[in-house]
Automatic annotation (TrEMBL), chain B:
ABC transporter domain mapped to chain residues: 70-292
Alphabetized UniProt keyword annotations: ATP-binding, Nucleotide-binding, Transport
GO CC annotation: membrane
Region (Disordered): 286-327
GO molecular function annotations of the record: ABC-type transporter activity; ATP binding; ATP hydrolysis activity
Lineage: Bacteria, Bacillati, Actinomycetota, Actinomycetes, Micrococcales
Signal peptide: none
Pfam families according to UniProt: ABC_tran (PF00005)
Family assignment from sequence similarity: Belongs to the ABC transporter superfamily.
Superkingdom per UniProt: Bacteria
Keyword Transport among UniProt keywords: yes
PROSITE patterns attached to this UniProt entry: ABC_TRANSPORTER_1 (PS00211), ABC_TRANSPORTER_2 (PS50893)
The protein's name in its UniProt record: Teichoic acid ABC transporter ATP-binding protein
C-alpha cells in the first residue's frame, strides 16, 4: 500500500465524491446522447416499415383506448372532448411508464456492458430516458394533430391552437427531468433486488387508473363511501401526486377543457416534483455506484 | 465461471505461427498497478448452490445477511429465492510495472477472467484493493457492445465509453476499421458479424484509445494469423509507450509469444508468478499431467473442455497455495 501511495496510484472501485461524479457525468454528455439516439433508432429496426413505427405505434395505442373507453364504455361524459383527453393521457403516461420499466432494466439488463467498460453508471438510466424522449417527440406531433382533428368531429368540443401551446415543451422538459429521477431510483432498486422487476407492471397499472389517464377521477371520488375529511385527503393526494400533475400540465396547455384551466400552482408543483425526484433519485443511484455489475 | 468462459474452449495445442517467438524486452519502469490481497465474490441470484457444490465447484450458498424481504421469499422453499455466491478470486497480490506485459494462464474456471475484470475496476472486490495509474481498458471476446447496432455506431459508443470525444473517435474511425479488417461490414449490425469479426472490432476499439493499461481477454484467440500479427504489433506499441498489457489466454504459446511475465491462477489463487519461460514450463508440465487417464475429478465452473480439466487428484501437485476444490 505504501508502494501505491509512493507512486501516486489511484484506488479502483471506490465511489467517487458526489461533485466529482457529477463533473465526470457531464463530461460524458455526448456518450449519453449517442447511446440514446442509437438505441431509439435500433428499437424500430428489423421491421419493413422501420422508423415509421415510432409514429404508428402510439397511434394504434391511442386508438385502442379511445375505442374502448371513449366510445364503447363512454366513461368521459364530464369531459368536453374525450378523444383529446384520452390521447393526451395515454401518450404522456406511456412516457412515464416506459421510463420506469426502462430505468429498471438499464442496469440489471446490461451486465455485459458493465463488466467490460468503465464509465459513470448514471449514463445508462439517463440515456434510457433520453432515448424514450427521442421516441416521444414524433409521437407528440401525432398527439397534437389528433387533438386538433378530434375537435372537428360532431359532439366533441372544438380544439384551437392557442398561445398556451407554446408551453408544451416546458411541460415535456419537466416531465423528462422527473422521469430521469424515476429511472435512477428504479435502476438502483432492481439492480439490488431483481424480484421487484415483476411488480412494476402491477404498480404502474394502479398508477394509471389512479392518475386520471383515461377518465377524470373527480366524479368517482364524490361517490366514494368515506367521510368528508377523508375525501379531502384522498382527493388532494390524487390531484397533486406527480403523475396527475404532469397530465394536468399537458392537458391545460393543449385543450380548452373548463375543468382544466391554466394553473400557476400546478406549474410550481410540476417543477418541484421534477427537481425533487431528480435530486433524490440521483443521490440514491450514486450511493450504489461501486456495486453495479457485481451480481 | 463468468459468461466469458463459455468462449474459452480453445485448446492448448501449440499454434505454429507462435512457435519460436518470444516477447522482446522493454525497459521496466515504476509500478503502475498494485493488487493487494484481492478477493472477488459475486452473487448469482435465483440459483441454488447445493447442486453445484455437490459437484465440487467453488460455489456456496450465500452467507450474506439477507434483508427481511429476501428471507421471507427464500424461507425454506426449494424453488423460490436462493442466492449463490461464487468466490472466484481468493486472495491474490502482485505488483506490475510500466512496460511489462503480463499473461494470465489457468484452466477453465480458474478465475482468470474475473481477476482481469477486478483489476480493470469492473468487478467490485469483496475485500482487498486494486490501485492503478490511469484508466485501464478491457474489452474481451464477450464484451458485447450493442449487437443490434452497426459496427459504425458501436465504434462511436465504445470510443465515447472509453472517454474519447466524438471528434477523436471520428479521427480514429478509419484506423479502427482498417485494423479490425472488416471492411464494409462496419455498416451492418454487429449481430451479423462472425465471432472473429466481432472480436477483432472490439479489440480495435479498445486499443484505439491508446490506454495506459490494456487488458485483453482471449480476444486474440478468435483472430486469424494476419490479425494476430497486427495485434501483436499493437501490443508492442502500447508497451513502447510505457504502457502495460495484460493478456488472459488458454493458449500458452500465445502468452509465450507476447508476454514477459506470467501469472498462473488456479482456483482463484496465484500458483506461480515469474518470467514467462519458467512459469510456462511448469504450466505445460501440469497440463501434461492432466491429460487422460484419470481426469474424472470435478472442476470449478463445470464447463466443457475436459482436455485441460483440473482433476481433483492431480491438482494437489500445484502446491500448497492451489488447494483443490474437493479437499
Amino acid at each position: 500500500m505504501a508502494l501505491a501511495k509512493q507512486y501516486g496510484l489511484r484506488r479502483l472501485n471506490v465511489r467517487p465524491p458526489l461533485l466529482e461524479y457529477i463533473r465526470d457525468l457531464m463530461g460524458r454528455w455526448s456518450f449519453i446522447r449517442t447511446l440514446a439516439t442509437s438505441t431509439a433508432y435500433a428499437r424500430n429496426q428489423g421491421n419493413y416499415l422501420g422508423q415509421l413505427w415510432a409514429v404508428l405505434n402510439p397511434i394504434l395505442n391511442a386508438a385502442v383506448y379511445v375505442l374502448i373507453f371513449g366510445i364503447l364504455l363512454g366513461v368521459n361524459r364530464h369531459v368536453g372532448n374525450s378523444i383529446a383527453f384520452i390521447v393526451i393521457g395515454v401518450f404522456i403516461f406511456r412516457f412515464i411508464e416506459s421510463s420506469v420499466t426502462g430505468g429498471a432494466k438499464s442496469i440489471s439488463g446490461k451486465t455485459q456492458l458493465l463488466r467490460s467498460l468503465h464509465f459513470p453508471r448514471a449514463v445508462l438510466p439517463m440515456s434510457t430516458v433520453l432515448s424514450l424522449l427521442a421516441t416521444l417527440l414524433p409521437a407528440l406531433v401525432v398527439m397534437c394533430v389528433i387533438v386538433l382533428l378530434s375537435g372537428l368531429l360532431p359532439g366533441y368540443q372544438t380544439m384551437t391552437v392557442t398561445w398556451w401551446w407554446l408551453l408544451l415543451p416546458a411541460a415535456v422538459v419537466l416531465l423528462w427531468i422527473f422521469n430521469t429521477g424515476l429511472a435512477f431510483i428504479m435502476a438502483r432498486i432492481v439492480a439490488t433486488t431483481p424480484d421487484l422487476d415483476n411488480i412494476i407492471g402491477f404498480v404502474m397499472r394502479v398508477v394509471m387508473y389512479g392518475s386520471g389517464v383515461i377518465f377524470p377521477l373527480a366524479g368517482y371520488l364524490e361517490r366514494m363511501n368515506i367521510s368528508e375529511g377523508a375525501k379531502v385527503v384522498v382527493g388532494g393526494i390524487l390531484e397533486y401526486q406527480p403523475v396527475a400533475v404532469f397530465l394536468y400540465l399537458v392537458r391545460s396547455c393543449l385543450t380548452q377543457e373548463e375543468s382544466i384551466p391554466q394553473s400557476g400552482l400546478m406549474w410550481a408543483l410540476g417543477a418541484a416534483w421534477a427537481v425533487v425526484f431528480f435530486a433524490i433519485g440521483f443521490v440514491i443511484f450514486w450511493r450504489g455506484e461501486e456495486r453495479y455489475g457485481r451480481d | 465461471m463468468t459468461e466469458a468462459d463459455a468462449h474459452m474452449d480453445f485448446d492448448l495445442e501449440l499454434e505454429p505461427e507462435d512457435l519460436e517467438e518470444t516477447a522482446p524486452e522493454t525497459p521496466i519502469g515504476d509500478p503502475c498497478l498494485v493488487v493487494d490481497d484481492l478477493h472477488v465474490v459475486y452473487r448469482v441470484v435465483g440459483s441454488r448452490a447445493r447442486k453445484e457444490a455437490a459437484k465440487g465447484a467453488e460455489v456456496r450458498e450465500a452467507q450474506i445477511k439477507p434483508s427481511f424481504l429476501k428471507r421471507l421469499v427464500s424461507a425454506g422453499r426449494q424453488h423460490t429465492g436462493g442466492v449463490s455466491e461464487v468466490h472466484a478470486v481468493r486472495g491474490i497480490s502482485f505488483t506490475v510495472r510500466h512496460g511489462e506485459s503480463v499473461g494470465i494462464v489457468g484452466v477453465n474456471g480458474s478465475g482468470k477472467s474475473t481477476l482481469l475484470r477486478a483489476i480493470a475496476g469492473l468487478m467490485p472486490p469483496a475485500s482487498g484493493s486494486v490501485h492503478v495509474s490511469g484508466e485501464p481498458s478491457l474489452l474481451g471476446v464477450n464484451a458485447a457492445l450493442m449487437p443490434q447496432l452497426s459496427g459504425e455506431q458501436n465504434i462511436m459508443i465504445g470510443g465515447l465509453a472509453l472517454g474519447l470525444t466524438p471528434k477523436q473517435v471520428e479521427e480514429r474511425f478509419d484506423e479502427v476499421v482498417e485494423f479490425a479488417g472488416i471492411g464494409d461490414f462496419v455498416y451492418l449490425p454487429m449481430k451479423t458479424y462472425s465471432s472473429g469479426m466481432a472480436a477483432r472490432l472490439r479489440f480495435a476499439i479498445s486499443s484505439a484509445a491508446s490506454p495506459e493499461i490494456l487488458m485483453i481477454d482471449e480476444a486474440l484467440a478468435t483472430g486469424d494469423a494476419a490479425f494476430k500479427a497486427r495485434s501483436k504489433a499493437r501490443i508492442e506499441e502500447v508497451r513502447q509507450n510505457a504502457g502495460t498489457v495484460f493478456l488472459v489466454s488458454h493458449s500458452i504459446s500465445t502468452v509465450e509469444a507476447m508476454c514477459t511475465r506470467v501469472l498462473w491462477v488456479h482456483q482463484g489463487k496465484l500458483v506461480m508468478d515469474g518470467p514467462t519461460h519458467e512459469v510456462a514450463e511448469s504450466y505445460k508440465e501440469y497440463i501434461r499431467d492432466q491429460r487422460p487417464p484419470g481426469r474424472r475429478g470435478p472442476r470449478a465452473g463445470g464447463r466443457a473442455g475436459a482436455r485441460n480439466g483440473g482433476g481433483k487428484g492431480n491438482a494437489r501437485k500445484v502446491g500448497a497455495q492451489g488447494q483443490p476444490a474437493g479437499s
